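Notes, p. 3: input format for complexes.
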Amino acid sequence: MNHWIIAPVLIPALAGMLLLLEVRERHRLRRLTGLLSCAAMLAVAVFLGDQAWGGEITVYALGNWQAPFGIVLVLDKLSALMVLLTAVLAFPALLYASCGDDRKGANFHALFQFQLMGVNGAFLTGDLFNLFVFFEVLLIASYGLALHGRGPERVKAGLHYVVLNLVGSALFLVALGLVYGTTGTLNMADFAVKAQALTGTDATLLKVAVLMLWVVFGLKAAMFPLYFWLPAAYASATAGVAALFAIMTKVGFYAMVRVYALAFADGPFAGLGQQALWWLALVTLGLACIGVLGAKRLGTLVSYLVVMSVGTLVAALAFGQLQALGPALYYLLHSTLICGGLFLLTDLIARGRGEVADCLQIGPAILNGGRLSLLFFVAAIAVVGLPPLSGFVGKVALLRSVPDPTYWVLLLIAGLCGLVALSRAGSTLFWRTTGEGSGLRPARRHLLSVVGLLLLSPLMAVYAEPLLQLTAAVAEQLRNPDLYLSAVLGGGA
Amino acid sequence: MLETAISIALALITLAWVLNLYRLVIGPSLPDRVLALDTMYINSIALIVVYGIQVDSKLYFEAAMLIALIGFVSTVAVAKYVTRGDIIE
Amino acid sequence: MDSLIEWLVSASVIIGGVFALVGSIGLARLPDFYTRLHGPTKATTLGVGGTIVASLLFFSWQERGLQLHEVLITLFLFITAPVSAHMLAKAAMHRQLKRMKGTRGEPWKQ
Amino acid sequence: MELLVAIIIGVLVASGVYLCLRARTFPVVMGLTLLSYGVNVFLFAMGGLKINQVAVVGMSPDPTDPLPQALVLTAIVIGFAMTAFLVVLALRSQGELHNDHVDGKPDDGGRS
Amino acid sequence: MNLAFVVMLPFLGAFLPPLVERVTGNRTLLACGAAALPALALALLFNPARQVFAGETLHSTLRWIPSLDLSLAFRLDGLALLFALLVLGIGLLVILYARYYLSAKEKAGRFYAYLLLFMGAMLGVVTSDNLLLLVVFWELTSLSSFLLIGFWGHQTGARKGARMAMTVTGMGGLALLAGVLLMGNVVGSFSLQTVLESGDVIRASSWYPVILCLVLLGVFTKSAQFPFHFWLPHAMAAPTPVSAYLHSATMVKAGVFLLARLYPALAGTDLWFMLVSLAGMMTLLWAAFVALFQHDLKGLLAYSTISHLGLITLLFGLNSEMAAVAAVFHIINHATFKASLFMAAGIIDHETGTRDMRRINGLWKYMPYTAVLAMVASAAMAGVPLLNGFLSKEMFFTETLQSEQLGALSWLLPLGATLGGVFSVAYSARFIHDVFFNGEPVNLPKYPPHEPPRYMKVPVEILVALCVAVGVFPAITVAGLLAVAAAATLGGDLPEYHLAIWHGFNLPLVMSFIALFGGIFIYSQRRRLFDLWARLPEVDAKLVFEGRIQQLGRVASAITGRLQNGSLQSYVAWAVTLVAVILLTQMWHLPALSLDVGMLPMDGVAILCTAMLVAAALLTTFLHRHRMTSIMSLSVVGLMVSLLFVRFSAPDLALTQLSVEVVTMLLLMLAMYFLPVRTQVESSSVRVLRDVLLALVVGAGVAVLAFLVMTGETTTISQFFMDNSKSGGGGTNVVNVILVDFRGFDTFGEITVLGVAAMGIYALLKDLNLASAKYDSLGRPWAADAHPLVLVTISRPLLPLALLIAVYIFLRGHNLPGGGFVAGLITSVALVLQYVASGVGWVHSRMPGDYHPVVAMGVLLAGLTGVGSWVFDYPFLTSSFTYVSLPVIGKFELATAMLFDTGVFLTVVGATLLMLANLGKLSLLDDKRENA
Amino acid sequence: MTLLYRVLPYPSLSLILWFTWMLLSGFTAGHAVLGAILAVLLPLGTRPFWPNVPRIRNLPRLLGFVVVVLYDIVVANVSVAIKVLGPLRSIRPGFVELPLELEDDFAIALLASTVSLTPGTVSADVSPDRKTLLVHALDVDDAAALVAEIKQRYERPLKEIFEC
Ligand code: NA
Ligand code: NA
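Output follows (1900 residues plus sodium ion):
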């Protein structure tokens, strides 16, 4: 029996528990534990990716109870991809945080591991209520992480983040209740099958449930009008945490894709809420542009870039028939990694500027700013979508597969806004300086994590073709939900 | 006869509850309200026990026992809050 | 059902209900906190006690054997309820709540 | 009975939502608690209502749906964890921002 | 391969100079190192060039992203060769020139790196054989030019100039991208060859106007065509070698290059003529006019560049093959004379310390040699015979005369052309006269100026020599190159033309002379014109642009601030509104509510209890300002909900809810010590009304949903659990078996949540600085009795009793209501009661106070129980149970689920105590601070 | 004796626990064993939490005391019920100070509880020096008589049970 599927959940869980057992606060040991766990996760994720690429969808029936009665983990190409992405992002983020940020509060490493557990669980589970549980795991850990360290800004942003998500969780439960009340099941595949047969009142109730699910996922993904919490929360979080959070919005997006692909791409409920999703995504994109232009801190700017990527992605999903999903997933990989890297870089810059931190105003020159400015330049090019880095590839791929004028205009404007804002930010941070700074020099591990993440952009551009093929294969598998259904429910589906 | 008696008892206890809620609302002091709440908890024990007889089931006994055992902790906590502010010191 | 048992159970249940109600009437009706504090003791003791006796009789009869575990409820209540009352009295004295006219003696300063 | 439960759910949810929209951390905590009561009852009700049909094998001829109960149990525990976190966060906010406004706005008086 | 390598060479080489700089401080060596790359590239182009001259087009393709039809495809035809030579040749000269221009302090290594990056990008643009690839390089030129223009980033002008250039050209680049993508859609390929062969398809497509506009937007921004010309003068903040390079032969030429490149695909329509020639004409005239009034040496050259680019654009717009040839020719000529002029300007700047022509006068005396070079180049710019500028300008005049595109208004074209010529001569005259003559220099920062270092002049000499050579011997110097380039531009046969100095007396010659003398006349009238100019309102594009950008930022900030106003209330309101909208819109599709459905009968007790629950909920809500009262009524709600669970056959839920209630109350009381006991009225009545409405809609909506589901019929998967609970899970309490077995994974996640919440709370509480109240809410000092005797004494024996009950509840859980969670809560409550009764110090002197390990052990135990099933090759959390018979004791069950439930128990105990005990300790910190 | 003491530091508590367990789980052999194990283990485990609880020295007296208290509860309940339902003007509440002879904390607490359990009186406070118990009585004619009655009916037996 192949137990590896559950490893991405159990490895961080185990590491988290060991970290809790370690009561003597030996920081080196804690760091080592955390990093080893991340490394192991990376290895497992690669292995699982390889397995998923065999084309078979692997189902792991927890407690040996078959779907739809027990909870199953499902490893298909999409979940493998997302787990891999998480692992790739987590390692540098943790490495960065392990340079001292982890000591600014209690239980950082354990929280970090549990966050990963939650994220991986959410990606792997094939059960809707279990998805809720893992959402809560990742949320509660993220609450702790978001508040890690000190400062009133962080507390305020954290409070908003927590309260909104608690409201979201309540809504999630209502939606799940309706799902169970109408279809009598919680397994995603079974749900997809049963949903198709609903009529009359039950069908309407199910519609309400699904629309509510969109709201819940939209809140996690940070879509208009539910993204307002994000900029403050991300901008005020510790750098390593903010970098890891780059994946969090993608969890919401993932959940949308999963549910949509299984149950609503086809059949009687095809396109349920799609129109609304499309317009909300476009508004998100537009408002993110405005946010990027108006940002007064680099951290906020990057946060809006995250929102921008969400708008871009959800619009591509809502455009219809999952035809843009392949490029969207490529873009997702790119934006997650680069935004993560940018959060780290923002912190390095802020450290270098002392008091002024990442405020976009005149400040002291950064000691050895050359390296940072180079990194910033690369990251900006990548995130704005200028050639020759991954952002350009992703954007071109999206433009080609979403032939809609509004989308084109917005996406191009988004690029322009990013360009204007980031060139302004960069010139302020690196050029418009007064005297030598008293800020801190980046540590080697700091630079290593940032470079590690940002280097992925050129790599993703160089290997764009295989990656696009890969994401296209993911999309192809999703376009054919029968594969998933028969894997989970057996041949009968 | 038993059924009637039980119905009457249930009605009496529910009525007691209403009076408790009345005290809880009008107070006037915080100890009054806590006392009302405490009484409600105790009346609930009676209610659960009577309900157990009504439906001829012992499955609800533990709920009543639980209230008897730890229900008072809430009351103690509030009382300590009133006198000391700090309930764990 | 045996009519004697039924009669006994019914009586106990009603006694329980009555005392629960009387306690709550006291709570609602008595003029100051200290006197109101005496109300719930009725619910605690005879109110719950009556229903417990009923339950004891009923299930012992039903199951053809002595069923005593309900007694535990009373046991626990007898342990915990005085503590609540005591703590509430202290709270009231701390708050220097008004006493009804004609109360003899003084509460202690907390 | 179903009507009563629906009314209960409605009132709990409405009260919860209203309190969540208040400006201080305390009512928000109260609101979220009420909301989660409402949601738990809602989730519970999705299995349908049955009286004295506890889902214990061999004890009830027509047992109630146990699954929503299990879900609600999970939801209660998670809800408790979240509430506890929020309460402490409210304290942290009080400690760092010196007031209990959800946006950390300074106010005129603390303990009035 | 070879070709791709040549293009990549500068990119690869870009890493070299910074490295060399680190090794050696020798600037000459550094410059030579940097120059070696273009030199090598030029050498490598030698053979291919011969093939191109022989009429071949060289291709070289590397795979990159086939699924986007984006390949590293390069082509070398005449046009590409021409531009490659300009890019590399002038680049080489600029590097040599920069060796002397840059001061010793400056980071020359970085400069060369940027320059080489730019060179590579430019080379890529001109040799791309794939339109997407062209866009890639196109944007790269914008990016690298941003770095070059902003090289002196400490100067405001440089920063703003760089950003402006980047923003404008970046915008154009995005438009170009869109245009190219559309073109690709129409043609079905991004291959340049295919696109060029599909001109008819493109022009016939309904997308043609859009494509043309988007492409032209790219072209016009890049080539600084009206109305996008404003960025170029401000790019003069760059070091002069950069200007010499970017604004003569490369960056701005990328735009006109694209016109040439796509000529076969896009040209030949009226729209093309209107847009291109109109923009060209406007630019030509306006920039030439403005150039005259620039006092900055480089400013004059910048506007002159814009003007000449306008001329070239105009030529392409004429839709005539001959005009295209002229355009290509002028591209060559402009590159040579303008590069040399910029370099000369740089020398003057370098030697005098200023570029202000009002201060620079009479340099003829101080640097005659440079003066000669500059004057020759200026003359070429003015179109003086025997110099290269004359030849192409003559062709230009000819073409304007021959165009009939404007019909009856066709005479406007030669008129405009002549007028442009006039101003061109005028500003050239100014460049010569005002700088080298016109009296003595005024207040120069460096005085006296002298000739620059010998080798700084070499690049200028070479370029000026080229101007003269082409001007005098066009046929033997440039003709071949022009022919292949023009042929490649037109994508077919060349028209009949003849490069010669003398074409006889004809109208173009007359126009040339009008321009020459008119220009000199205008320059002679400069005082009056300057006065006039000075009276015109001065518009600084940089300020305007910067203002716009800042305004944009402010507006954006304002909009963002509106939406994202930092108010949680509004965020929650948005979310709730969304839900309300969903409910409202879907309600219409629901059937009319009917009470005439199968329901359980109501009874008086239930109705009364419902009424009480509702009342308590409303009380909690409306009394929320009286916080303690609100908490009390919330507790009533909790109690009622527990009883609801009792009523509807869910004793497990009732037990859980009741014990959670108690813990929650402890938590709230702990918190209330630090929080205000009242909330003041803050919400306006409008706000309250809005919130009440939202609450009502959502509440009613959810109630309706609940009612419909409850009264509907759904077959669920539950029967399976009922059937398999005993046989498969070993327990009769199905709810519990679901929790620890069927859906044990949920429970595993759930206890993780609890544990993580406790950890998070611990982290939040650590070092929390909270002042506790010294007086109660009535202003009295707190009571003295911290540990009342009765409470202390009674709570202690209660502990073993409660533990006993916990064990009982735990053990029966699998078969009857109960379980690890409730048992854990009972245990926690009993322990917390000890804290409450006897204090933290007392408790911690009797047991360890760190509950982290307990939480960890709990989750670990649950997890390990799950992992245990791997031994038997079953999935995680597969349960197993067996019945054991012992003498006396009898038969009992052993189940792994029990072990799992023990994990739950431990986690619950650890987590609640971690939360409550640490919250309780908070006040101790405050006391300690007081005492300290 | 020492070994027995080590295993069963509080035999009466262990007995109560065992009996509670049997009540809860039913009188079977298996539960008798399990209950015995728990009755030994739990007091041992929680021993640090209650260092000096007095031993019951007179078990029959204890049983007698329980019967008396239960009887008093029933009687007092009825009389108090009448007062509660009757005219309120007729009741004369008062705080009565009861000088304590008991010295042991646990015994004092038991007395206070007993006073509170019998309707009509609530023990409101114990003086810091543990010499006086403050009792609130719902209707008191003669404070001295009340004090005497409490001392006679409850305090004395308690003293006998615990302190000899
Ligand atoms: Na405390
Ligand atoms: Na001059």
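The pocket of sodium ion (ligand 1) is lined by residues B 86, 88-89; E 920, 923 (CB under 6 Å).
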